[in-house]
Each structure stands twice: as structure tokens, then as C-alpha cells.
């Protein structure tokens, strides 16, 4: 389904690629690290940036290396070993797809030449579709802005799909799942998505991308969530995800099918990314 058919925004404000890298045993070395670092010349290393990107940096492209935190990664309903068993991930973002596609092609050439592999998840950035002014003030006006890797060393990636039943709903029905629900005596009986995730607003930086070609397509994820947070706030992230998965308090999740919840540690360069420093 296309966004226009669902009363969702059709505007694209940028592109992201998530390159999950699996390395061949014993093949990562300083020469490979140097070659990977060269791929980022002219692009901004997000690891060192405090705050959102400048227009210039976003136009040229940005990258972030992450080493897999295998002890925290969890399989969900969709088993995807190329993601869950990867050794690391490079996240790319840009106003235009071409610069980061070129980075992906070059990185794939380097990694496959050493016997490794790359699994790419792609998404487009869009304005929010389910957000009134009041909800924007509640959920986003005071949200944690992006920060450098030293401040937010941990990240999680949560690819997911919505079920066919979800996409067949009227758009007002879908939108209702994001708000709390009350009984005839005005007692809250269901938190909804907004309140189920509210405790993460002040401590977790959240980004969401949408499937580039539309929703409900076989072999693709509808959405990819990306989150950055401090060591101290890792339990907050886990609690937020547990709250979202509680279908009694967040019935929306009855219509969610998740891929792996992948965890990584942000690192500044290719040597640390490859685990050789």
C-alpha cells in the first residue's frame, strides 16, 4: 500500500541505510580499516556531533559505526540471522539517496572481498502522520535531541511490520491506537502507544524510517526504529519496549510483527568497528 492510500504523508525528507556487516573470521585488519575510513571522506561522522545535523552535512551524507552488542540482541517473531548475527552495523543518512548508495556499494565490495557479507535495510524519513499539535507537544517538544557517542554509547534497531488487518483499517481507527482509552466513567482502561512509551521521551533519542516503496510488501519491513541512549538508560529502553509489547495496555502491538531487536555500541572509527583496536 502507498502512503496516499492510507491518509499518511507522502513527503520524503531524507534517506537512511542500515548496513549490517558480518565479517569473515580472521580477515579484518588495519588495511581494511583504513579503506573503510576512506569511504567516509567528505561525509560527517555522527559519532562526534552533538545535536541535529546542519543542512550541509545532511546534504553530503553522514555515517555512524556500531559494534554489535550480541548479549543484548534478541530475535523476535521474524527470524533474520543476517541482522541478528551480524558483527556490526553502519548507519547512513542523507538528504539524497545517491551518496549513501555509493558508500554502500563500496563497503560491500570491501567486505565481500574478505569473505564477509552485508545485509541492507533501507528507509525513508517522513514527517509524522499521526501527530496533532497537542501530541507533538507531549511526545516531541521535550524529546531528547541527538548526541555524540560519548554521551549516548548504545543504540538499538527495531525493524517491524504491521499486519494486513492493520493496513485495512480506516485511518481514524489506526490513529486511535496511539491515544489512551477510557470507559463510560472516564477511567483510563488502556494507555495506548503514547503513554506506554512516555517514559522514554526525556532519555532516549528516537528516529523512525518508513519502507521506501510502500507498506505491506513481502520481504520488506514497514518501519525501522533507531534509538540511541546512555548506559544508565538502557533499562529505560527495555521497559519502554516491554510496555509497547503489552497488548493489554497497548493494543496496537496486536498488529505488529517484529524483526530482531538489534543492539550496538557506537564507535568512532573503522578499527574499533572491526574489533582490531
Short characterization:
The chain is an alpha+beta fold and 277 residues long. It has ten helices and twelve strands.
Q: If helices are DSSP runs of H or I spanning 4 or more residues, what is the number of helices?
A: 10
Mean pLDDT, to the nearest integer, reads 93
- Order of helix and strand elements from N to C terminus: EHEHEHEHEHEHHEEHEEHEEH
Helix content range: 25-40%
Q: How far from one another are the termini? A: 46 Å
Count up the domains: 1
Give the overall shape: globular
Q: What is the name of the CATH topology?
A: Alpha-Beta Plaits
> Got a strand count?
12
Structure, explained:
The longest helix is centred in the middle third of the chain and has 17 residues, at about 95-115. Strands 1, 2, 3, 4, 5, 6, 9, 10, 11 and 12 form a 10-stranded mixed beta sheet that branches. This protein has helices at about 30-40, 55-60, 80-85, 95-115, 135-140, 165-170, 170-175, 190-195, 235-245, 270-275; strands at about 15-20, 45, 60-70, 90-95, 115-125, 155-160, 180, 190, 205-210, 225-230, 255-260, 260-265. By secondary structure, the protein is α+β, with helices and mostly antiparallel strands. The protein has a single domain (about 5-275), classed as Alpha-Beta Plaits. Strand 2, helix 2 and strand 3 (about 60-70) form a beta-alpha-beta unit.
